[in-house]
């Protein structure tokens, strides 16, 4: 192929690229979020539990104990599902003192409520989250034990509303 033919093909390819880029630039992406619209949840499945903490239908992904460091759930979040404003109780046992952080997320990196963030002595604990103001959806509750050398994470999903 001659040098002239190569140059012509390169100009044609460059023109095609410019046309495609112009089309992309002309596209206008608008994002409008209706706050009254139902929340599209990224989390699925829950461990169903009654108001006394009896697990009726477990989800094998939820509330896995962090056994290497000495922590377990007893029984996890209940009731589940829960009502907005009625909330849930989260119960656990720490074998040793640790810094604990518990958050409610509507997406993996979006916290909608911090339930607890403090150092606790070893023992049995329970906290309540009202889930006030949250739309009907499934939320992920992250339970983190934070130590100077590492962070240990487990979670469970909680359904709010119907």
Describe the overall structure.
The chain is mostly beta strands. It has a domain at 48-160: Immunoglobulin-like. It is built from one helix and nine strands, in the order αβββββββββ. β5 and β6 form a beta hairpin. The model is unreliable at 13-39 (pLDDT under 50).
Keyword list:
single chain, 162 residues, mainly beta, Immunoglobulin-like, four-stranded antiparallel β-sheet, 9 strands, 42% strand
Strand coverage percent: 35-45%
Low-confidence stretches: 13-39
Strand order of the largest sheet: 6-5-8-9
Run of helices and strands: HEEEEEEEEE
Q: What proportion of the residues is helical, as a percent range?
A: 10-25%
- Tell me about the largest β-sheet: 4 strands, antiparallel
Query: What distance lies between the first and last C-alpha atoms, to the nearest angstrom?
Result: 69 Å
Look at the helices and sheets and give the structural class.
mainly beta
What is the CATH architecture assignment of the domain at 48-160?
Answer: Sandwich
